[in-house]
Amino acid sequence: MTPTHAPLTRVDLEHLPDIARGSALLGTGGGGDPYIGRLLAARAIEEHGPVPVTALADVPDDALVVVVGGIGAPTVMVEKIPAVTEVTQAIDRLRPALPRPITHIACTEIGGVNSMLPIAAAARTGLPLVDADGMGRAFPELQMLTPSLMGVTACPLTVVDDKGNAMLLDAVDNLTAERLARAITVEMGCSATYTMYPMRGAQAREGLIPATLSAAHDLGRRMAAARAEHRDVVAEACAALAGLELFRGKVTAIERATVGGFARGRASMEGTGAHQGRRLDLEFQNEYVVARVEGRVAASVPDLVCVLDAETGTPVTTEGMRFGARVAVIGAPADPRWRTPEGLRLVGPASFGYDFPFRPVEELAPR
Amino acid sequence: MTPTHAPLTRVDLEHLPDIARGSALLGTGGGGDPYIGRLLAARAIEEHGPVPVTALADVPDDALVVVVGGIGAPTVMVEKIPAVTEVTQAIDRLRPALPRPITHIACTEIGGVNSMLPIAAAARTGLPLVDADGMGRAFPELQMLTPSLMGVTACPLTVVDDKGNAMLLDAVDNLTAERLARAITVEMGCSATYTMYPMRGAQAREGLIPATLSAAHDLGRRMAAARAEHRDVVAEACAALAGLELFRGKVTAIERATVGGFARGRASMEGTGAHQGRRLDLEFQNEYVVARVEGRVAASVPDLVCVLDAETGTPVTTEGMRFGARVAVIGAPADPRWRTPEGLRLVGPASFGYDFPFRPVEELAPR
Fold first, then answer.
1. Among B163, B172, B184, beta carbon nearest to A184
2. What residues does the S-Me-THD N-terminal domain cover (chains A, B) (predicted)?
3. Which of B288, B104, B145, B111 has the alpha carbon at shortest distance from B216?
């Protein structure tokens, strides 16, 4: 996804609505409520001023980059809102375990609250924010970051909660780190804040996906402009994401449960307009994982499955989806490194428990 | 419980069988298999020499004492044996979080593997072992230590597993520390090793229960002597513990489940000899928690409920109890500080989910 505007050099209050809107869509339904994240980021910028943004290519070799964000079930996070002190606590708790001072903060994922918490953390700590993230979208588990593909370890990592409980974890691999951090998160009430993946500058430059903060901002801006100009927001989002409109319809069923610290569930919709008489089924684990049209896979992880309100173009999160809502579903290609054999091992359909092989959304698209 | 022999000044190989036997009984069925603990301690002493023992009263003001041990379900621990490197790892992981070097090691509890792991840890680290523990028996949860009564915090604490995963935890209170450490332990496979309750010398002197390592050694020695001299081991154990023989009988039913990281269950026995025609029921959470004779409470936490093989006098752990075994059940008074209102709030029947008030075993004893 290439931004049509110049990349961000700082994040100020005026940028937040577009970044929140764009990252809510890129978050594929997950990453937590963007509205809550936006409030946290705005408050931090009001208090501490705008956040300087460093292009990924400009991160120096001697940098020490960490990613920060929220872990848990978005369904819980909307009620148990992370405090900004939690984010800085997670960073402060990690400092003694690192060989050098932290120099930069980056986003784990571009998605809802998790594109906003790093902005808040950067504002409060005075550290610059890297224009990059570890997913190019949102994924539910902490090993699902592109730096994992080049052997960067998530640990040492910290998980802290709103009560002041803090864990420093050293796990033998990133999948184990996910299991252990998730167990603590569940016990902390299914919502907590982390700092992880300490990376040297060269590791960050190679491991992270560049310019995704700018891309989210650009996407959000294009969507807002389309809406203001009474153009089709869904078509504009498709164009920006190089994606395909898979479906328009009305939500006819939704099942949701908080299981193992995740918001899991499924939703069904019946088609409207050109899709009249057809049915689409979505399954999610915090994020939308697979979309089936008439029982046939139309898009799946790692490709993006995005849902928007068909009238307003507002991204619909998995916890925000409601019976009767009229929505559009977009499928869009993931970052190319997720489509490699190594990438698919980490975030392909099989890693979410499905037995079908991955096929790119552009190949699956209905003729 | 007052030892009839001089207190230990060191622990050598020759002391291990008696300490293991005595602490298996004091462990009230919990604390893990004493045989496994004994092997770990023997190996460490063979490699590193005997362990110097410091009397609790001799711990200096500027000491920094920690307790070490195993956390999890004894049913799992008998198959997933803690490695001694795990214990030293748990200590080493805690060092950077402490303001000063660790000077002494103590037992969390006098019970099976948890009276032996500290010996192994002391041998391997070269630190002296304090002749004391935090329970005077064994209890299943990590907030159930006498130092808790004077406000000593369990954190910072470490939990490590056999794979090399390590957690450093700072929790807001000891009950939360228990919940979070337990969640990690379950995810680590229901058996892990910890270091916790960093205490200054004065805190240790006031907070720990003195001379319990010597008492366990003395108890074990008296039981062995009684057996060698064909005297009644059960009667000797009763005398040593100032306890009462509650029952002799045959195990007729046993239910066990590993639930929430604990070995929970119940056992029933029908009386033999003087107890013919009566029934005793035991309930346990790692340790024996309550004994009922004919449905009436005969002993309960915090008092000790101990089970021995009626023929050999060997202590019977909760995971070692078998259908058809002929056993004797002893009730014995807990350390007086457990019988105070504060002590009962922490380890009384209500803290184990029972709604009956605590009554001392000597008052409950059948006339």
1. B184
2. 15-170
3. B111
For B90, name the nearest residue in chain A, comparing CA atoms only. Answer: A170
Q: What's the N-to-C CA distance of chain A in angstroms?
A: 24
Residues B104 and B62 in one domain: yes
Calculate mean pLDDT across residues A56-63.
Answer: 98
Q: Note the helical H segments in A229-340.
A: 233-241
CB-based contact, A257 to chain B, within 8 Å = no
In a domain, B255, yes or no: yes
* CATH number of the domain bearing residue A170: 3.40.1610.10
- Interface contact flag, A163 B172, Cβ < 8 Å: yes
Residues B239 and B333 placed together within one structural domain of the fold = yes
Number of separate domains in chain A? 2
At B79 the pLDDT is 66
Quick one: A244 and A298 in the same domain?
A: yes
Co-location of B255 and B326 in the same domain: yes
Q: How far apart are CA A214 and CA A192, in angstroms?
A: 26
Q: B98: which DSSP letter?
A: S
SS3 B73: coil
Residues B153 and B85 in one domain: yes
pLDDT of residue B78: 64
Q: Which two tokens stand for residue B171?
A: 């929790």
B218 found inside a domain: no
The rounded distance, in Å, linking the Cα atoms of B332 and A338 is 64
Does residue B17 sit in the same domain as residue B150?
yes
**Which residues lie across from B195 on neighbouring strands?**
B68, B158
Report the chain B residue with the minimal C-alpha distance to residue A93: B170
CB contact under 8 Å between B166 and A167, yes or no, is no
In the A/B pair of chains, how many CB contacts fall below 8 A? 59
Residues A271 and A176 in one domain: no
- The answer to whether A149 and A347 have CB atoms below 8 angstroms apart is no
Q: What is the secondary structure of A199-246 as a DSSP string?
A: EEHHHHHHHSEETHHHHHHHHHHHHHHHHHTT--HHHHHHHHHT-EEE
Q: For a pLDDT cut of 70, what percent of chain B falls above it?
A: 96
The CATH number of the domain where B288 resides is what? 2.40.390.10
User: Which pLDDT score, from 0 to 100, does residue B1 have?
Assistant: 60
Give the phi and the psi of residue A36 in degrees, each rounded to 5: -65, -45
In angstroms, the separation between the Cα of residue B182 and the nearest Cα of chain A is: 9
- Residue entry with tokens 């997933």: B80
Instruction: Find out whether B87 and B120 touch, Cβ atoms under 8 Å.
Output: yes
Any bridge partners for residue B71, and if so which?
A: B192
Q: Is residue B226 part of a domain?
A: no
CB of A25 less than 8 A from some CB of B: no
B173 contact A CB<8A = no
pLDDT digits (tens, 9 = 90+) for B73-127: 766 666 666 676 788 999 999 999 999 999 999 999 998 889 999 999 999 999 9
The range of the structural domain enclosing residue A76 comes to: 10-212
**pLDDT (tens digit, 9 = 90+) per residue, B184-236?**
999 998 889 999 999 999 999 999 999 999 999 999 999 999 999 999 999 99
